[in-house]
Write a structure and sequence with these properties.
The chain is of the alpha/beta class and about 400 residues long. It is built from 11 helices and 17 strands. The strands form 4 sheets. It has a 7-stranded mixed β-sheet, sandwiched between helices. It has a 4-stranded mixed β-sheet with strand order 1-2-3-15. Strands 13-14-17-16 form a 4-stranded antiparallel β-sheet, covered by helices on one side. It is globular.
């Protein structure tokens, strides 16, 4: 097929896209309209945790679609109850509300924290967030984000999100006052260039929030669901949040997210929260299949092993080419290029059949399927080195 065979002009223009249309995918590979295959180390921005079109998701969709697709969130359904129990048991947090996107889950977390502040902290509503943070594209989650340039978009913003500096406890302490209800943080700032929150900083933040009587919200949209080598990123710091949000990998490619909270914090009254498609049986059946796959014996150990392989190969490439640091955890890693060549490297890699991402001009981000093989990692490194040499 030709690119002209697709009515692309009807799509709203929101971003620059290369002149290709993907029509099929399997595992770590995508195929475009012309039949060309690409090794995918973006995977929908860490969404396809089991790769493209895995059998376990296809079977879950088919089986559930034959039984019940949607029955309204005004009623219980079996897959959502089962998935909520799986998440609650694994996270240690007692209550789960399902949403359709990470931004919607984070919006719910903001609402829940503010409701808790109304009930337990004399109307406190401010949530300390961080420079460089990314929490979504709704008005409230854009306001909570610290993405450069967003402070001038879609004014007026939602107030109540003072910004601290990542890994600087003093900057948080200076912002906490009687109006503060919570601190909200990503264990790794993915959109800022894969910048990890130091485990010691997260532990200090947990201690500070407890000391001041406020909540700790962890945005695990990108770091959760096995991406960093453990089911949730917070496990590696040994902290427990009051509220956590999940998305991306939770649905393995379908729209599914979750707001997860401790029992004592789950204070929504009837009517405070809802959503037409939230917790529908079709999507939550997929979520069950994803979680059960990840917690099966040996799965996360393999993620940690392939994550180590990817880090080692990127570090060796960096040493050969005189590039910068490799950072991140598990299969969420970044490579510093040392100059603002990210977009050019992404294009050169795509021309050679490799899909990668440049979240900032001077770095590349790698988010392969959690099922990526060592052979695919080695092949990626070979193509990437050719692309870097070309640029």
């Amino acid at each position: 097929m030709q690119i002209e065979d697709f009515p692309l002009q009807s799509l709203m223009e929101i971003t620059g896209r290369p002149p290709l249309v993907f029509v099929a995918g399997e595992g770590s590979w995508l195929e475009d309209h012309a039949g060309r295959r690409y090794l995918d180390f973006v995977q929908g921005w860490a969404v396809n945790c089991l790769g493209h079109s895995p059998r376990v998701i296809r079977e879950a969709l088919a089986a559930q679609a034959a039984r019940l697709v949607n029955c309204s969130p005004a009623y219980y359904n079996a897959p959502s109850a089962r998935l909520a129990a799986l998440i609650a048991r694994a996270s240690g947090l007692g209550r789960v509300f399902f949403a359709n996107s990470g931004a919607e889950a984070n919006e719910g977390a903001i609402k829940l924290a503010r409701k808790w502040g109304t009930l337990h902290r004399a109307g406190a509503y401010e949530i300390v967030t961080f420079e460089g943070a990314f929490h979504g594209r709704t008005l409230a989650t854009m306001s909570a984000s610290g993405k450069a340039g967003w402070d001038r978009l879609f004014e007026p913003k939602v107030p109540g999100f003072p910004k601290a500096r990542l890994n600087d406890l003093g900057s948080v302490e200076r912002l906490v006052n009687e109006r503060t209800v919570a601190v909200m943080i990503e264990p790794i700032q993915g959109e800022a260039g894969v910048l990890p929150a130091d485990p010691q900083f997260l532990r200090a933040l947990r201690a500070l929030t407890r000391e001041r009587g406020i909540l700790l919200i962890l945005d695990e949209i990108q770091t959760g669901i096995g991406r960093t080598g453990t089911l949730f990123g917070f496990e590696q710091a040994g902290v427990a949040p009051d509220i956590m949000t999940l998305g991306k990998g939770l649905g393995g490619g379908v729209p599914l997210a979750a707001l997860v909270a401790a029992e004592a914090v789950s204070c929504f009254a009837h009517g405070d929260q809802g959503g037409t498609f939230n917790g529908n049986p079709l999507m939550t059946a997929v979520g069950c299949a994803v979680i059960e796959t990840l917690v099966a014996p040996g799965f996360l150990e393999r993620v940690r092993a392939t994550g180590s392989r990817l880090r080692e190969r990127l570090a060796a490439l960096s040493a050969r080419r005189g590039l910068g640091e490799v950072r991140g955890a598990g299969l969420l890693l970044a490579l510093e290029l040392g100059r603002d060549a990210g977009a050019a490297v992404v294009e050169a890699a795509r021309d050679r059949g490799l899909l990668i991402n440049s979240p900032r001009p001077g770095c590349l981000r790698f988010m392969p399927a959690l099922t990526v093989t060592e052979a695919e990692i080695d092949r990626m490194i070979g193509i990437l080195e050719e692309a870097i040499a070309a640029v």
